[in-house]
Structure formats: C-alpha cells, structure tokens
Amino acid sequence: MIYKFILFFFSFFSISYGVHFYIITTEYSPKIGMFSAANQVLGQLHLFETGQLFPVAGFMVDFSTYGLYYDPSCGPNWWTYFFEPVCVGETENVQMIYPGIEQYRRAWRHRYWMSRAVAAEIVKKIYPY
User: Where are the domains of the chain?
Assistant: First the structure.
C-alpha cells in the first residue's frame, strides 16, 4: 500500500518541472480577428511569464490552417504573415500539446484585466526592436 502511495506521489514530479510545451492555435475560434488573436497571444504570454501556465515549459504560436487570414500560397502559419514568430521557453525534453478550450478562455479573461502598460512590456520583450 505504501509503495503505491509513493509511486502516486512521485508521478507528479514529472509534471512539476514543466514537461509540456503549448502550441497556441485558433482551432477553437476559426473566425477570430487579427486583434482578438493578438490579445489571445498576449494573454498566453503573460500567463506564461507570471508562472500561471504551470507545468508549461514554453509555448509557440502556430495558427496553422485555421482562421480568416489563412492563405495556402503564403504558408501554413498565418500569424507569421503579419508578425514575427513567437516561441518562448524550453523546447527540449517536452511534450508538445494543444491546450484545451478552458486554457484559451483563461487567457482571454487574463488579457481583459491586463493594463495597456503591461501588454506593451510583453510586446517589447518579445519584439525588442
């Protein structure tokens, strides 16, 4: 019995060190507009920066073939049609996952309450030029 408890307890340690890497898409909102998409990314960035995406080691933006702006002749990730790619955190020894709808809702709520000054700081960190 104690053995099972110890195994159960230690099974959480792999989660606690950031073994996931989120791939942010527009799959749940295929008709999302440009500024809504940018706000979603800002919310995710701030959650990651403040440690609220635990156990996430990093994330990238890949809007793939979803969305109003997707054009197969321009490439697969429409985020990069307009912005530089976003990839933050660690990408080695992680499991690439797509967050669920609740994570997107959480980022929306978080971005809604974020000040413009905080959003500007995040943008300057990602795009320092």
Answer: 18-126
φ, ψ (nearest 5 deg) of residue 91 = -115, -5
DSSP, collapsed to helix, strand or coil, labels residue 89 as strand
Q: Name 58's bridge partners.
A: 21, 89
pLDDT in tens, the chain (129 residues): 443 333 333 334 434 456 899 999 988 888 888 898 999 999 999 998 888 887 889 999 999 887 889 899 999 899 999 999 999 888 888 999 998 889 889 998 988 899 999 999 999 988 887
- The pTM score is 0.77
CB 18 within 8 A of CB 57: yes
Q: How many residues does this entry show for the chain?
A: 129
DSSP 4-33: HHHHHHHTTHHHHT--EEEEE-STT-TT--
CB 48 within 8 A of CB 120: no
Phi, psi of 56, rounded to the nearest 5 degrees: -90, 130
